[in-house]
Amino acid sequence: MDAANNSYQPIDCNYYDRLEAWATMRTMCLIHFRDEAGEEHEVNARIQDVYALNKVEYMRMDNGLVIRLDSLIAVNNIPLPGHC
Fold first, then answer.
1. How far does Cα 22 stand from its chain's mean position?
2. Confidence at residue 82, expressed as pLDDT on a 0 to 100 scale
3. Interatomic CA distance for residues 60 and 57, integer angstroms
4. Torsion sign (Cα): 71, 29, 45, 15
5. Distances in Å between the alpha carbon of 12 and those of 39, 51, 62, 63, 64?
6. CB atoms < 10 A from the CB of 29, how many?
7. Count H helices, E strands: the chain?
8. CB 50 within 8 Å of CB 16
9. How many angstroms separate the CA atoms of 9 and 35, rounded?
């Protein structure tokens, strides 16, 4: 998926709540996601903030990385609903 060229697809509300809980608890997370070119990456970091900007949801990590939520594949080995 090329996230930059597709319209944003909101993620599951319960999954969003889970991301916010990990951020609040400052949990170290293993994040598996696709970048704008469709390449898969994994990173270990803490979620610093979960927010919306221009009707697109993002999360900012403590290492400065910003990930668009619809590019997530899994966090802490829990797949994003709709991904396999």
1. 12
2. 72
3. 10
4. positive
5. 23, 15, 23, 25, 24
6. 19
7. 1, 6
8. yes
9. 15
pLDDT of residue 83: 53
Length, in residues, of the chain: 84
Unique residue bearing structure tokens 């970048």: 35
**Residue 5 pLDDT:** 46
Residue with tokens 């668009």: 68
Q: Distances from the Cα of 79 to the Cαs of 22, 54, 63, in angstroms?
A: 15, 25, 22
C-beta of residue 24 within 8 angstroms of C-beta of residue 59: no
Tokens of 16: 């969003």
Return the CATH architecture of domain 13-76.
Roll (2.30)
pLDDT along the chain (84 residues), means of 10: 65 95 97 95 98 95 97 96 64
